[in-house]
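Message: I would love a firmer grasp of how sequence relates to backbone shape in proteins. Thank you; the sequence and its tokens follow:
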Amino acid sequence: MHRIEEAVPFTVMEPKATQLDALRLNQAYETLLQTFPSLYSLLIVKDAQLVFERYEPPVKPTAAYSIKSITKSVMNALVGIAIQDGLIASVDQLISDLALKMPEKWLANIDGVTVKHLLTMTHGLHVEENSQEMLEVWKSSNWIGTILDKPLVHSPGERFLYCTCTTHLLSAILTQAVKVPLAYYASRKLFWPLGIQFRRKLFWSLGIQFPVRWEQAPEGLNWGGNNMFLTPRILARFGQLYLADGIWNGQRLLPAGWVDESFEKHSTGWSGYAAYGYLWWVGCVDGLNYAFASGYGGQYVYVIPELKSVIVLTANSDASIAEMQATTNPVIKDPTWILRRFLIESRLPEI
């Protein structure tokens, strides 16, 4: 069993202290439960204060669940940190230059692909999300080998193609660059500085720190882009880090300008859903720019800079792909629904 603790918890404030209407927030939450029965939690941070926090039984605040593809946005942070550490030259560096231990055939199949192409999902790889090719990757004993065994199907930068295989390739590149397992690098460079402590039951009394729980692929790499386990409050801290331009408690964890660059529209994304930055979805609603990390089943971290706000949702992710594709849940279908109900429509009128 894992336990995740905050060294210094969020300051909790009443919604009205940050110009939010508590009654409207509660009404919006009841509506959300009716349309989203698999919801686990919802948290709102405004002006760096935790102003709304709800959990559905039997979920507990200290319980860590898989954040699914929100892990991709954590990968964004790790790339930025590796650049800040001088381990990656820039987003324009060819991944073939970083993949020193890969066979020549694999390197030939990623010729011209840069770190930026992986961050923007414009890599040109042959694997598409939820495709037969992706299932073959997950069934294989060497995911990286299966991903790179075939040539590119598009020129790098030509088109957007969302796929978790992309960020798993990024995991391999990053692991070679930082020379330690990514779970340790993420903990030492990101989560521990955020004041997060990971402990295990047999060692609780000893106070020993462990790295974040992050599932591994058969080849021993942490699964780039999936199955990191965090609590909703930790996700709120992660969102707040991006809201504060990569600075936490006066310490710069992400490079200057990295958040702005990550939240720019670099790819078309999915039509009718959102555009894509650097492993963050990006959009605009009612003149407000926002970015969000999204994970299968209803995991979200929204960052809304102009409102100085972060919204976190977590949910049961056991639904099948067919069920998710058939859902009419407005949260899943429309990324602006949450922003409208819980921030835009819940603001107190200015006096």
